[in-house]
Design brief:
Elements: E1 8-17, H1 25-29, H2 34-41, E2 44-54, E3 59-63, H3 70-77, E4 85-90, E5 93-94, H4 100-110, E6 111-115, H5 126-130, H6 132-136, H7 141-154, H8 170-183, E7 188-192, H9 200-217, E8 220-225, H10 228-234, E9 237-242, E10 245-250, H11 252-257, H12 262-268, H13 273-276, H14 279-282, E11 296-298, H15 303-311, E12 317-321, E13 327-332, H16 333-340, H17 344-347
Parallel strand pairs: 3-8, 3-9, 6-7, 7-8, 11-12
Antiparallel strand pairs: 1-2, 1-4, 4-5, 9-10, 12-13
Length: 349
């Protein structure tokens, strides 16, 4: 499996916790609520009809509040949790059909996890933590050390390879965890609240590092978070869960401009929309009056940058150009203002 080919398809996934979970799947499909399942039948509904297509080489963010089912979901990808019903296809192969030996190989070579609390072995040095998975796979020590040192350097920890976890800051420990995951050359990275325990500035640095590495490595990343800003910054696609159900999924532009319901509206209410919305999402067709003298902005420019450019120019409209410098639309200060206001959903279609 090469990393840019590894797609994940989750279909009709249900997880019910309790002594007889399978007997309630049809009842849930027919409208039995999570509350009724718990109060009347003594079972807990963890995931309810989850369907997500995750293209290879992209970052899929799954977000929601505590108890929404996001951490339960990520543990289904490598079958650390067994589903009650449904399928999980990795490059077309159903993980749920894998026999024990194939599943162990899949976990060892095709998936790697990065945890919120780092998951480092305290008695092992940085280099020994990073190479632990390679050792388990039986790799020669000299070769595993060479690979480990390469990733230690890539995550900015060169010179710290002989240190122990208790000698490192939280941010440095998380870098070790990331280096360990990357050293296994797994095509799928499962990151469960990986940055939630970090201070805001360190968290931002780690997000930036992940995006930089992803440009080159193109892993298939499943990233769990409860933080919308983090989701908007990292996610090629975002799925928002509530009570084990997907309330909305799509890219950041669609979620910000067309929230599915009041729950999503409350989520995005205090987000700096200008920082994440791009001109492509709000631009209009070029008009007859559009001329070459107007300022030009690249496709993908954020509204924050676009507003700054227009405010400092003598124009209230800019031409949007693609990577080949061809005009593809226009954006005005009026459109930008409408999009970043709390009423932007109603005005931007």
């Amino acid at each position: 499996m090469s990393s840019n080919e590894t797609s994940i398809e989750i279909r009709d996934l249900y997880k019910i916790f309790g002594p007889s979970p399978r007997q309630y799947v049809d009842s849930i499909k027919n409208g039995l609520t999570k509350t009724e399942l718990s109060k009347v039948h003594g079972h807990i509904l963890g995931l309810n009809n989850i369907n997500i297509s995750m293209p290879g080489g992209k970052i899929q963010v799954v977000m929601g509040l505590s108890g929404s089912g996001k951490s339960t979901l990520i543990r289904h990808v490598n079958r650390l949790i067994e589903p009650t019903s449904g399928s999980i296809l990795v490059n077309g192969r159903n993980v749920l059909d894998m026999p024990e030996t194939e599943l162990r190989e899949f976990r060892r070579t095709h998936t790697a996890m990065v945890f919120q609390r780092f998951g480092l072995l305290p008695h092992r040095s940085v280099i020994d933590n990073v190479t632990f998975g390679l050792e388990v796979r039986g790799m020669d020590k000299a070769k595993s050390r060479e690979i480990g040192m390469r990733w230690i350097e890539r995550v900015g920890l060169n010179g710290f390879e002989a240190r122990y976890p208790n000698e490192l800051s939280g941010g440095m420990q998380q870098r070790v965890g990331l280096a360990r995951a990357l050293s296994n050359d797994a095509s799928i990275l499962l990151m469960d609240e990986a940055y939630s325990a970090l201070d805001p500035l360190i968290r931002t640095d780690m997000q930036k590092m992940l995006l930089e590495l992803q440009k080159e490595l193109k892993k298939t990343v499943v990233f769990i978070t409860h933080d919308l800003d983090e989701a908007l910054r990292l996610g090629d696609s975002i799925a928002i869960l509530r009570d084990g159900e997907i309330i909305q999924q799509g890219d950041s532009q669609r979620i910000l401009i067309h929230p599915a319901d009041d729950y999503i509206r409350r989520f995005i209410k205090d987000v700096n929309r200008a920082r994440y919305l791009k001109v492509d999402a709000v631009m209009e067709a070029l008009g007859q009056s559009d001329t070459g003298s107007m300022p030009k902005l690249k496709s993908g420019t954020t509204l924050e940058v676009a507003a700054g450019e227009l405010t400092s120019s003598s124009f209230d409209t800019a031409i949007i150009i693609d990577d080949s410098d061809r005009p593809i639309g226009a954006v005005s200060l009026r459109l930008i203002t409408a999009a970043i206001s709390s009423e932007g959903e109603a005005e931007v279609k």
